[in-house]
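[agent] plan:
  1. take the single chain provided in the ticket
  2. run structure prediction with default settings
  3. attach structure tokens to the ticket
  4. add a short note for the reviewer (M.T.)
[agent] executing step 1
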Amino acid sequence: MSIQVFGLPVSRGVAIGRAVLVASSRVDVAHYFIAEDQVAAELDRLQTARAAVAEEFSALKADVPEDAHAELVALLDVHLMLLQDDTMQAATRQWITERHYNAEWAVSAQLEVLARQFDDMEDEYLRERKADVEQVAERLLRTLARQAAAQGAEAVPLAASRDFGGDDPLILVANDIAPADMMQFKRSVFTGFVTDVGGRTSHTAIVARSLDIPAVVGAREVSRIVRQDDWIVIDGDAGVIIVSPSPIVLEEYRFRQRQIELERARLDRLRSRPSITLDGQPVALHANIELPADASAAVAAGATGVGLFRSEFLFMNRLGKLPDEDEQYVAYRDATLALGGLPVTIRTVDIGADKPLDRMSLGELRHEHALNPALGLRAIRWSLAEPAMFRQQLRAMLRAAAHGPVRILIPMVAHLSEVQRVRVELAQARQELNERGVPSGDVQLGAMVEIPAAALMVNSLLAHFDFLSIGTNDLIQYTLAIDRTDDAVAHLYDPWHPAVLHLIHQTISAARAAGKEVSVCGEMAGDPAFTELLLAMGLRSFSMHPAQIGAVKQRVLRADANQLASRVHAALAADAPEKAWALALRQEAAGEP
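[agent] step 2 finished; step 3 output follows
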């Protein structure tokens, strides 16, 4: 029977495929596919970890005092029995051999299957045994992680092609997907994403849009409803997931898929056309990227440069080993060279909040888990708390600038004292390179405006920075006091809120008055619904995911920026700016004054 589940539409389009479930766990779990020739080695990894856990249980039993409660020994016996259960072992191995899951994913997938079976049991005592299975699985997962770290293993990339179980398209279904996993899945075979939690600007949503594949988040219990291999449909426009769709529904959505492909092909024809408004004003359409390899795709999509290189993703999936100066330099250099003389704006590491490092890396840097990470030690605060690490990154960026135009972007600026410290660290980094005789290049220094304080003191910031970039995702979050990753308040996340629009307009106007470049690199830049409004505010530089450039360029080519500017103040003064601006656009199209 067909089931409909509703969530938040975060990436448009239609996806049809079989479900691949990623189980939630209290333990950080790496998820990646392995190649056929890695299956035997992965089975050995699993068996080695299982033997190590068995030894731990035996040692714990041996250490139990003779006068201890018999229940403790019995509990350890139960855990050992579960660990060595033939059925559980065979099922876990099957995930590896047939689905090509890595060992950690296989364990967590089987844990999810067993957990559901226990939940369905009528007997209360048997239902409570689920906790024993979870404890055994999580001990096994921790052992696998420790062994991988001890061997100095790096995260294994996903298989580039689907060679492990048929030709059916796959859709990822999870309670939530960590940013580190999203970077693994970015190169994967998935044609869509569905999660129980999240908001429109959660990292899952952002990466889905960058891949230009349909996604729905905040769908509550979807990961509990969907089973492995279920056929599902994602309607990324309406925010609907259809589980086990009927043949008629499938045919309807396949027709919509064909229509979407035709529209994409039409937009692709605009790729080489200059982005100029009807009244002759050039508009820069830059790309946001996460990894150096993304730079070539940005150029192919018609980007006029990279407006945001999120350097923090070089720090993820590292199993405790952070990238050194040379590794970062190679990454920044490769992106710079791939752009062939176009500018690349590299943001210093923006770790924290929804993008934490793995626990081993955090432990290495002596940072404890924060109660409110969005307001804690993150972004530039984190970098300034680790000056050696920060100068290492700055040196790598300066070295890359010898190969092409590089701009450095500082996230989450709020205090002039931070600006002064950044300037000192940058000067020291350059001096250290000079002392080593290492070539470097000139860079421009910019600030992200993503805290209301930065927007309100924009004139002070402009005195110290060469350019500004407005990060609308965090600016909206902090202005409205809403956790943008919390689905309980996701409906309150409103980019049309008058306060948000006034801060953006104020920042753009101040930068233009000072003769300095300002861009928008948040999700609003890639949303065609805001293109004319941002042009009317005076914005002439957008930065978005490459997949969004075509749709935004189409709006730019059809816009008269001067005419739109005459209507923006009335819209901003309205209680409901979205409705007021829609009316203004209709009047503009009709030639009304």
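[agent] step 4 note for reviewer: The chain has three domains: 3-23+160-266, 36-150, 275-564.
[agent] ticket updated
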